[in-house]
Design a protein that fits this description.
Blueprint lengths: L5 H28 L4 H18 L11 H11 L8 H24 L10 H18 L1 H5 L9 H10 L6 H13 L1
Amino acid sequence: MPGVNRASLRADAIAGITGALVVLPQGLAYAVIAGLPPAYGLYCAMIPVIVAAMFGSSWHLVSGPTAAISIVVFSAVTPLAAPGSEQYVTFVLTLTLLVGLIQFAIGMSGLGALLNFVSHGVVLGFTAGAGVLIAASQLSYFFGLDLPRGGSLFGNLRQFVIHVRDINLNVLLISLVTLGSA
């Protein structure tokens, strides 16, 4: 293979191991955010990397699941099925296939260049909105509450206020220590 020597192979191996140590736990978390069983997060952390490696490499792009995509999937599929159910997983897999086909068609047609015209404000707004949705969806885990899943932003906040007396102080302490050490 051209351009591969002992030093570059070692550097690539270290990068791969480091990436795996970061992406695998993230994949578990992103699966939970998306309403899927955690094992699906491992699939999402491994399979896209293999597919991306077959089509080339990038110094700037990390392949795999993201928090924003997880919350979009959760928001899109939750009205159709209960999170974690077999039907929910089927809908997510169907959505994934359709999005992949659409992305392939956009890439082959050259329409991806249109993304250069999306303003910075739109990207910031989307990112901020995704952050708020992710934070609201994780309230039950952070405070150790047994809240119903699949609600809207305001529904989640309403349920949190209703159950605020039921906060598990042990879980909250662990959450705060973890957040403080990050």
